[in-house]
Every structure is written in C-alpha cells, then in structure tokens.
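Hi team,

Below is the intake form for M24 family metallopeptidase from Paracoccus litorisediminis. Please confirm the fields before the structure is written into the shared record.

FORM ID: S-0412
PROTEIN: M24 family metallopeptidase
ORGANISM: Paracoccus litorisediminis
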Amino acid sequence: MLRGELARLGLDGLILTTSDAFQNEEAPDHDRVIRWLTGFTGSLAHALVTPDRAVFLVDGRYTIQAAKQVNGKLWQHGHFHETPLAQWVAGLGTGLRIGYDPMTWTVTQAETLRARAHGVTLVPVADPLAAIWLDRPAMPQAPIREMPLSEAGRSTSDKLEWLRGELSRLGVDTWVETRPDNIAWLFNRRGGDVAMNPLALSFAIIGKDAAEWFIDPAKLVIPAPEGVTPRAFEGFLPALAALSGRVAYDAFFTPDAVPVALVQGRAVPAPTTGLITLEKSKKTPEELAGFYRAHLDDAVALAKFGQWLEAEMPVRSASNQPIDEWEVSQILAGFRAASPGYQEPSFATIAASGGNAALCHYAPATTGSATLTPDQILLCDSGGQYDCGTTDVTRTFAFSPVADDIRRISTAVLKGFIALSVARFPVGTFAHSLDALARVPLWQLGLDYDHGTGHDVGHNLLVHEHPHRLAKPGNPVGLVAGNIMTIEPGYYQEGRWGIRIENQVELVEDGPGFLCFKPMTLVPIDLSLFDLAALTDAERAWIDAYHAEVRQKVAPLLQGEVVDWLIRHTAPIADAATPDQ
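The structure came back. Fields below:
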C-alpha cells in the first residue's frame, strides 16, 4: 500500500520518524506511524521506503529490540549514528524526489538532510499515510488541569513577563512554541493526551501583547490562564502565515512546517535556542520540594516492592508458580498507587529478567513475559508521575550468587555510578564533559554501554526532559543549580544479562562557583551483585552514607517486615551479609 501511495504522489521515496508534530518521545496512538508500519514499539526510529528498498534505523538502545520486532526480510536494519539517514538518502542517487512530513521532522533535521543529501529534493507531504491508514485512532481529547502556584512556584503572568523580556533582549517580536511540555510549564496546566506524559497536545504563539493557545476546545474543562486566548487547534499554521516581524522558535524541536508557513506571509524566521526549555530546567524551590516529596512516596513503594520480591521469589519458585515480569510491573505499580499523589507511571516499567535485561528499553507484555528464576538477574527501571513531581529509578536484583564475570563487570558499573555521583565541577559545565566519569571503570575492562548516562527530568512532566544530557555526543548547555538529572550507567550482554543503577539527583551549589549532585532517590542498592573487596574505602564510605540516609528518611514511613527489610539492606558494608563475600 505504501509503495502504491508513493507512485500516486509522484515520489521516489519517503522518510518517516517515530516523532509526532510535537516531538514527543511517546507519541499518541494517532501518530505512531512507525509502529503501525513495522511493529516496532520503541521510542526512536527512522525509516526510508523506496520502490525497491526499505531501511529501518535505530540507535544502540534499540538494536536488539528492532531485530526482534521488525521483519529483517522486509527491512534492512541499521544504526543511525553509524550511518545517518541522510547518508542513506544521499546514496539513492541524484534527481530524486523524497517525501517527508514537515510537521514531524524538525527544522534542524530537515536542514541537515538537505545539506547532506546532495542532489535529492525533499518534498513536503502533509500526513503521508493518511490515505492508507484506514483504522487510525482518533486524536486524544483529555481534559486539562491546573498545576497550582503552590507547586509551580511561578505564575503564568510571571513566566510570560520573563519570556517577553527575552524576546526584547533578542530583538524579536514573537515566540512560537510547539513543545507541549513547554506550554504546560508556561501556562501551569497539565493534560492527559499521551500515556504517562501529562501533556495537552497544543501549540502557542506569544507576542509582545498577546498569548494564543491553539488547543482543542474540548480539553478546556477549566479556563485558560488569565492573559492567554484559546484558539482553534487547526488555526495554528494559518496564524503563522498571518504574522509579521521577526518570529523566533527553537529550531532543534520546531517542525519544519513552521518557517515554511512564516515565509508565506510577512514574517522573518529567527531560529534560536530553546528559551522555555532552558528556563524550565531551572526548578523553583516549590518544584524541588515537590520532587523530594514524590521521591519519599516512591521510596516507600520500592521498599514494599523489595520486601515482597525477596519474600515471594523463593516461595513461588519452589511451588512451581514463578513470578513473571508483567506481574513485577503490576505489583510495583500497585505499591506506587497507594500514595494519594500518584497519577500513573512516568514510563512503561522495564522489568527484565535474564537475557531480557540486555534490552535497554524492554517492557514486558501482559502475556508471555519471562518468568523470574533464582539464577537470573532482574533489572527493574521504573518511575511515577505524582502531582508534585516525577520519578525515575533503576535497581538490579540478584537472587543467588552471580558468576565471577558478572560480579566483576557489575562492580565496574557501581564504581562508575559512584564516581559520577561524587563529582564536583564548575557551574556551567557541559553535561557531556562529565559522561566519561561513569564509563572509565568499564573502559578499563574494555567494555562500554551504548546509551546516555543521564537526562533531565520534568516536574510532573516528561521523565526524559531537555536540554541537558549526560552522554557522549556534545550537549553545549551549561549545568546550573536547580537542574534535575539522572545518573544511570549500565552494561548489557546480549541474550544473557544486564545491569543498570540509576538515581535521580539535584544539582546543588558546592562552594563558590561549583556544583555537585544531591541524591533524590532513596532506594537501597542490592550489594550482592558486587565484589565489595574491590571497592576503595571512599567508595564503601559513599555507599554506607547513602544507605544511612535512606534508612533515616524512609524507615519511619514503613511498618513491620518492610522496616526489617530496609534495615537489612541499608546496613553498613562491614555488617552486610552478601553472597561469596
């Protein structure tokens, strides 16, 4: 069907992406074109389809998953960091017309493709699968809700005043915002259009005297903020074409359709950095306080889960009624749901046993998921959306003594985790400059992991927020106090096992001009995986201090066997009973 559509449109090929018009990591079902076409359930992929070729590209997080989910007889698989999409397009030859949806490819992406795919013409095609995706789900229409000032810390009017000051400083007249998480922050509103992401899919145009919000009116069960005028969602592109003056936007995230619409009228496109994205990353005192409350609730849930897992695992295994990965995810969600402020998971829980733990972004299915066995490691990466904050934590569990190579590699991961956790660095340091601290112990073994070491986290918003990213690729945005990030090194051996350790941290001042990481996550680390004798005195002291903080803050919130479990799992290393130690 798709190749027939190419012929009808007069195209020599079509490029597709998992992103929607809002650059959401998790798109609504209406916009999951890659999933509909290929069966791939990951959050990031690109595809190229021509009359005689189909190419599917992912990054290192998803190479194993893509090989399992996407038919290799129909699709040629690749790694888009090793061979970028533009290189595949350029290799098709010259004089070709390649279609793309300018609402799902950003300005930066389209410019890169045009610059690198010499001799190929990119042809804008609005919603290219509309004619063949006949059972397509409708666009979501979840109601919006208010984020109270007591939680947000800044009013919408204050944020608009700040933004207009930035526009004046830059010498521009208007700001165009296409990121729903930025709009949610700016207007102190949350939605429910995307599962696990409290967003209202919408656009905004902010001028010197007006703020327009392009949103489906069915979502406005409460009024828009004072000073904000709701407009029809479909009126966004026509409104852009009616603008004049200099119009700024974040080229990295804004759809390529935006400057195309602007130049149809009298406006002058003025691409710049993400003003709201950067400001949003500097959490207010009220937001920070909410994060810490959310993490206490999370700590209680994870302590209950840890005690349940330790008690149930041997009993269920012995009775031939083993726990499976899906049950793990549901039990954990149930413990979180006991908190009055809990809303939903912040992402699909990664409960991965044995070889599945080598799939960085694996999520168990409701049926047919793997069972837990005493000789297999369990990796559990999970998080919650609370009304006061967002959480993200990973712990890896062993149920019996692990093999020597697993213990050695796991210890290297722990050493890297601690090395980054104790880092002290100047204000304004780029996140990518710190990434190697977590990798060096693995590098010394000739090993590495093919994902970032950490990311920003939103305040009851996206669990993967921008602009900072602890990773190898350059990310030239300086870190400042009030940023919230994760630290999550790992290692993965395909088909056998995987480990990841993750804490969420706040960046805090540590003397004049310097920063350090303050843990927000309060969950014990399973020490049975590690060679404790290989740790330095400083590393052992860090673990003991961290566990003492967990015990001090979380134990008073627990009862009975869960308290006993927490005390045992936060005991000083000299007192801890660990296998083979």
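SUMMARY LINE: The chain has three domains: 2-124, 145-280, 285-575.

Thanks, M.
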